[in-house]
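SAMPLE LOG
Freezer: B-3
Tube label: C17
Construct: single chain, 235 aa
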Amino acid sequence: MNRLRALQLIKGGALVRPCLAATQVFAARTLRFTAALQKERDAGFLKRLSRRMGWLDHSRSILRMSGYLLYENVADKVDYARFFKEFDMPDTFLSWFVITELHLWMLMVRMTAEGKEGEFVRNCMLNALWDDATVRAKKLEQGSPAGVREQLNVLSEEFHASLFGYDEGLLSGDRVLAGALWRRFFQLQCRHPLHLESLVQFVRQQVKLLDGVTREEILLRPDIRWIAFQKPSQM
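STRUCTURE (predicted):
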């Protein structure tokens, strides 16, 4: 399958809701990681105190679980339907992906403050993303593994490019961030300037909120609160 066909499938395929297979995969991993977490809690007092003070790294099994739980905080808690409605987005695979991508990027920004542990959790979040995207893409492109691979290759290239744009926008002014969101999130097709303005404000406010989440909460007990973005009509 050529690149043009892959792009057509990504932009035209109907959105696949979280499927049973993906849910079972995450559930099985969560059970294994929960057992590891319980074992960690049974460790000696000195070890727990040391880790709480940041003297020792948390075990990889717990951090891996946190990465997948953080992804589930996006996949299960973000109100996709509202994004579709408020921003006049088509109900497609690509729309699902760019919404998920934006929320994961904001979590990745928060993880940069947590050093090596944050980097490991970030990578686990990305593994969860591509696991989920693969399941959804297979549902769209049934019987064509080559087509799925091509779609995911295209998405991967666009994903990494969007991260650079969002990072630049976050560190710069609202105009630069708006440009990044217009190019990626709205796919150069934002017909209402107020939509773009409200999304810029949403990103700024959500990043600020995540900055206030403690190290222990984000690494060991991830339970993200996503703010409700302000409707353009309310601005």
